[in-house]
Amino acid sequence: MVVTCDLREERGKMIAEVGGVKRIDSDWYEVKSQSSKRRYDVRLGESGWTCTCPDYFYRGVKCKHAFACEWSKKLRDKVRENLVIQPVEVNVCIFCQSARLKKYGIRHNKTGEIQRFLCADCGRTFSVNIGFERMKHSPHAITTAMQLYFSGESLRNSARSLKLLGAQVTHQTVYNWIQKYTGLMGKYLDKITPQVSDTWRADEMFLKIKGNPKYLYALLDDETRYWIAKEVAGDKFSHEAPEYVSQLFRQGKEVTGKKPLTLITDGLHAYHVAYKREFYSHEKPVTKHREHITWRGEKGNEKMESFNGNTVRSREKIMCSLKREDTPILTGMQIFHNHLRPHMALNQKTPGELAGIEIRGSNKWLTLIQNASKRDRAQTR
């Protein structure tokens, strides 16, 4: 009997809907057979899909297992729900909580322009500067400084550039802004669960903190390139290294609310020990650990190496070295990478957008800071 392409696609859809597709990498899947306990390797290359099943091997056609992989991606995208973070708008009176507000001119001062409002019920006027109360400089100057710094400028160059906006600040002031607002945004974003894939990558890179050699361990989602977690350690070969990696993996589980089906690392022994502690279990689904992958002639950990070079190393070179292990700079790098910097490999989207976290507004720094400050204020009441 000749199986048509439409019938293969329908069968592939059935396989995907019952969870018969396991994603190993961005272009490598394991698909369960419908008629036996076998699993077939399905890969996407430059010439299209290839599969180890007899249908593809003998006929050279696109098989149901390839269709299943395509349907699996469609189902993942459909399940992923977007959380939209909107710019904060003033919609009630701060005195009587009335919604009958009218714009009542602009407040002009040396820190910038702020919209004033008139309440039609109580007759009082007010202005709101959420997140930037009692700050000497305008929100525009502060967010511009943070954008300049995390885009690659030094603290001093960022301070010099602000003079063009009429803001006379020192490099220490710029650092104080970074310290204040990265902490605020970090607490806010920690409460949001990213919708990441089932394949994660981990790697370590050498850096210096106050002149001392350290290692930064990072956990990255393969599909969205979302920076899930980070951990700074003193060594990668000592008996303490597995504990640092275990902390990294525990953070990953806390941030995402799940564990991966595939973990990709290099051959460092600490990764395997931590994988056994945090991810491995006898209950299905079992997390698979791929290590020493470049020794088998397969794809290496290029995505992770690219992340280390473009996101962390380029920033660390300008700074010469970090000043302390709990520096806010690393948290700022993570926020900038995940939510504010579009990536060419992601079609000019941010990892956060692909992970279901969309930040709107012409100034996304401002949107994040205002929403974080609003939630922090509500929790402290």
Strands, helices and their partners?
Elements: H1 5-17, E1 21-25, E2 28-32, E3 39-45, E4 48-51, H2 54-59, H3 64-79, E5 83-85, E6 101-109, E7 112-119, E8 125-127, H4 139-151, H5 155-162, H6 171-189, E9 199-209, E10 212-221, E11 227-233, H7 241-256, E12 262-264, H8 269-278, E13 288-290, H9 302-319, H10 328-340, H11 351-354, E14 357-359, H12 364-380
Parallel strand pairs: 5-14, 9-12, 12-13
Antiparallel strand pairs: 1-2, 2-3, 3-4, 6-7, 7-8, 9-10, 10-11
Summarize the structure.
This protein has 381 residues and is α+β, with helices and mostly antiparallel strands. 40% of the residues lie in helices and 21% in strands. The chain has a five-stranded mixed beta sheet, sandwiched between helices. Strands 1-2-3-4 form a four-stranded antiparallel beta sheet.
Molecular structure report:
This protein is an alpha+beta fold. Among the domains are: 5-79, no CATH class; 89-129, N-terminal domain of TfIIb, CATH 2.20.25; 199-324, Nucleotidyltransferase, domain 5. The chain is built from 12 helices and 14 strands. It has helices at residues 5-17, 54-59, 64-79, 139-151, 155-162, 171-189, 241-256, 269-278, 302-319, 328-340, 351-354, 364-380; strands spanning 21-25, 28-32, 39-45, 48-51, 83-85, 101-109, 112-119, 125-127, 199-209, 212-221, 227-233, 262-264, 288-290, 357-359. The chain has a 5-stranded mixed beta sheet with strand order 11-10-9-12-13, sandwiched between helices. The chain has a 4-stranded antiparallel beta sheet with strand order 1-2-3-4. It has a 3-stranded antiparallel beta sheet with strand order 6-7-8, with no helix packed on it. A hairpin with a 2-residue loop joins strand 9 and strand 10 (212-221). The longest helix is centred in the middle third of the chain and has 19 residues, at 171-189. The model has no long low-confidence stretch (mean pLDDT 85).
